[in-house]
Amino acid sequence: MPVYHWQGVSPRGETLSGEMEATSRDAVIIRLRTQRIQPNPARIKEKGKGLDYQISLPSIGSPVKSRGRSSARRATPSRSAR
User: SS3 helix, strand, coil % of the chain, rounded to 5?
Assistant: First the structure.
């Protein structure tokens, strides 16, 4: 039987999450509602399907800082005296 990761809201308004073994996603929703937990259907996913982890990429050097306005300008041709 597959394991589902779920998230929902308790009657007190607290955000709850956990894992549940069930036959289907709909079975998870029904079981949570019988426990008086309002499930968030967008947050019920079968464990091991899709990307359920974050990928961290290494960085080189320090992060680039914003200086506000850009100092790069378009080159204009110089006017020569005739």
Answer: 15, 20, 60
